[in-house]
From TrEMBL:
Highest rank taxon of the organism: Eukaryota
Composition skew (Polar residues), residue ranges: 314-338
Protein name stated in the entry: Extracellular serine-rich protein
CDD domains, A to Z: Cupredoxin
Source organism: Triangularia verruculosa
Signal sequence segment: 1-19
Region (Disordered): 310-338
Keywords from the named record: Signal
Length: 638
């Protein structure tokens, strides 16, 4: 019989596209046998070995020297197993590279498995060096040996661990496996995760540890998504489920890899977890330190709060799609989990690392804090919190998985993350001072972030908030200098970081590159009015700034060129005799009369970012200006 050419090529194409997967049992039913004893496999096929009691291995020899390992060749390591009928959770899988014969044996010496015929072959010849000839040779071979380090090589040794199957537990809960083994976590309902911690701090994520993210799983199914990590060394590894609903970790849903049998045992870890602070923590991104596979394909980064729905049902493959952090970020950064709690003096190491340092450690506390300093700190905390949210939220959007991914080079994205982290530090610094003087932070305002319009809205908001906060810090510092001098450097130290950020923002807005913006002192009431008018959805009643009942009406400013002179038009509510107060850097303050048609001339030589405010009196100093505001402030680029 002859194949036609076309059917032949169709056959070989099919062979290429679809590698076969073979299964071989090792020692099943207590027999010293591989079943099947011979596998016929093609290039790219995989063979998975499953292991039964008591304690077997798969090792490669040459045909001539059965029961002796070849250096650097296939070895599964030993797989101890409890049952003769139920396969161990540990498997070993090899990929066939060509059609040459491969000779394999079990290297267990207790009971002389190899010599007793526990051998196996892939693609052995049908005559001459046959499997029977190999088995015969093995009978007379010297005592079998294993590769001396005992570690798996060439193939993939993998242990399968159930997460949340039949209760809040990992099964097995202590994974005893050699270095190099992969651990595959399978998720049962409802919504679990695997996150690494240290022994000392159960339920708290370990910096640079692994995290699967939360994997919601449909009732009655096992998730098609698995989380896969590799055991890198012999040190014990500790992990937990970070689901805060129901306190899984504190309820005992913890596990270990190669935990000591004495001292810091898994049982001791379970005990420690019971009293761990709630809730458990998780990183904003997943997966970390391992990969999520759905139908054998990798799922890219997603928001750690949950694996996106399209990967949960098993009919979707990973690979091609990059998942965005999705709608879970519509409320500020699912921040309750990542950013420190509102008003908290804590800075998680995560942010300290990202910011390139911690908050100040040594303070020259004064005996008490003046009432005005107290009020400033309350306000500073609010504005800084707004900045943190703006930056962190935008950073998440810009990061590898975000919807603005690729808009900026990674170095810029990283810097934005770093500035977000610095903003966390700045809030924490203020919160530390308040804590020292037992001042309770007011409740946090709810922000509206202008992020729907893409990066442009973000940049404008960042720029103006940066300048507003710099302005407020300068004003606050000058006002507290007399009564609370120790606080001045604390506040002003923040100006440097913000100022550098503002320099970068200038560049990103395609404005003149400058090392720093022009730092403009902005009277605190004006700064707060600006924040209120532009970014606040609501604030708790206790949040008050003297002289600002609510935001002053806005003012729209547009630049016009008239007979070689630059002017601006101003649009605002109200009539009467008004002036624009131009507030510039280095204490500059100039007034210009609002003329008919509401035109105003621009102070000569002024460029860059400045603030304008409409006032009802000319010539008042900055300290008094808040009493005369009609509309504004607004920020203008000249
Ligand atoms: C399995 O067998 C190997 C080789 O004899 C031995 O080193 C190892 O301790 C055994 N494991 C168990 C759990 O019996
Ligand atoms: C899974 O749990 C996380 C953490 O509690 C939560 O944010 C997420 O909404 C949950 N997802 C589902 C589908 O339950």
């Amino acid at each position: 019989m002859r194949f036609s050419t076309s059917s032949l090529s169709a056959l070989s194409l099919a062979g290429l596209a679809q590698a076969a997967h073979h299964q071989v049992t090792v020692g099943k039913g207590g027999e010293l046998k591989f079943v099947p004893e011979v596998v016929k496999a093609q290039k790219h096929d995989t063979i998975t070995y499953t292991f039964f009691a008591k304690n077997h291995s798969v090792a490669q020899s040459s045909f001539d020297k059965p029961c002796q390992p070849i250096d650097g060749a296939i070895f599964s390591g030993f797989v101890p197993s409890d049952s003769q009928d139920v396969a161990s959770r540990t498997t070993f899988t090899i990929t066939v590279e060509d059609d040459k014969p491969i000779w394999l044996y079990c290297s267990q010496t207790t009971g002389d498995h190899c010599k007793k015929g526990m051998v196996h072959a892939i693609n052995p010849p049908e005559s001459g060096n046959t499997i029977d000839a190999y088995k015969e040779k093995a009978k007379n071979a010297p005592q079998s040996t294993s590769p001396h380090d005992g570690l798996p090589q060439i193939g993939r040794r993998e242990i399968s661990v159930d997460v949340g199957k039949g209760g809040l537990k990992f099964d097995p809960d202590n994974i005893v496996e050699p270095v190099g083994t992969y651990v595959k976590f399978n998720f049962s309902p409802k919504n679990h995760s695997v996150v690494q911690s240290t022994f000392d701090k159960p339920c708290q994520l370990l910096e640079r540890g692994f995290s699967s993210g939360h994997i919601p799983t449909k009732e009655g199914t096992v998730s098609p998504a698995t989380f896969n990590i590799q055991i890198e060394n012999t040190k014990p590894v500790w992990f937990y489920c970070a689901q805060p609903n129901g306190n899984h970790c504190q309820s005992g849903m913890v596990g270990s890899i190669n935990a000591p049998t004495e001292g810091n045992t898994l049982a001791a870890f379970v005990e420690k977890a019971k009293t761990a602070p709630t809730p458990s923590t998780i990183d904003p991104y997943a997966p970390l330190g391992g990969i999520i596979l759905v139908n054998g394909k990798e799922v890219k980064t997603f928001n750690g709060n949950e694996l996106p729905a399209e990967f949960r049902e098993g009919n979707n493959n990973g690979d091609s799609t990059t998942i965005t952090p999705s709608a879970t970020h519509s409320t500020p950064p699912a921040a309750s989990q990542t950013l420190p709690a509102w008003g908290s003096p804590d800075v998680p190491d995560y942010f300290a690392d990202k910011a390139g340092g911690h908050k100040p450690k040594h303070w020259n506390w004064a005996e008490k804090l003046s009432p005005s300093a107290t009020a400033f700190l309350q306000l500073h905390l609010q504005i800084e919190n707004l900045i943190t949210h703006l930056l962190w939220e935008s950073y998440l959007k810009l990061e590898t998985a975000g919807e603005w991914k690729g808009v900026y080079p990674q170095t810029i994205v990283d810097s934005i993350g770093a500035w977000a982290a610095q903003s966390v530090l700045h809030s924490a610094t203020t919160a530390t001072v308040m804590e020292h003087y037992q001042i309770k932070p007011h409740g946090g305002c709810k922000w509206k972030l202008p992020l729907d319009g893409g990066v442009k809205g973000f940049l404008e908001a960042w720029n103006s908030l940066n300048l507003v906060q710099i302005g407020a810090l300068i004003d606050m510092s000058s006002q507290i200098a007399k009564e609370d001098p120790f606080l001045v450097p604390v506040l002003l130290a923040q100006v440097g970081a913000k100022s550098r950020a503002a320099g970068v923002v200038n560049m990103m807005r395609n404005h003149l590159a400058s090392a720093a913006p022009r730092e403009i002192g902005v009277p605190v009431p004006l700064a707060w009015s600006y924040v209120l008018g532009n970014f606040v959805e609501s604030c708790p009643a206790e949040v008050e700034v003297e002289g600002v009942e609510k935001a002053w009406p806005g003012v729209k400013v547009a630049e016009v060129e008239e007979a070689g002179e630059t002017k601006v038009t101003v649009e605002y509510e109200g009539s009467g005799e008004h002036w624009v107060a131009w507030i510039g850097p280095w204490g500059e303050l100039e007034y210009a009369k609002v003329e008919g048609g509401k035109q105003v001339s621009v102070p000569k030589g002024w460029t860059g970012d400045v603030f304008v405010v409409i006032v009802d009196e000319e010539g008042v100093g900055l300290g008094e200006i808040a009493k005369h505001v009609v509309a504004g402030p607004e920020q203008v680029w000249l």
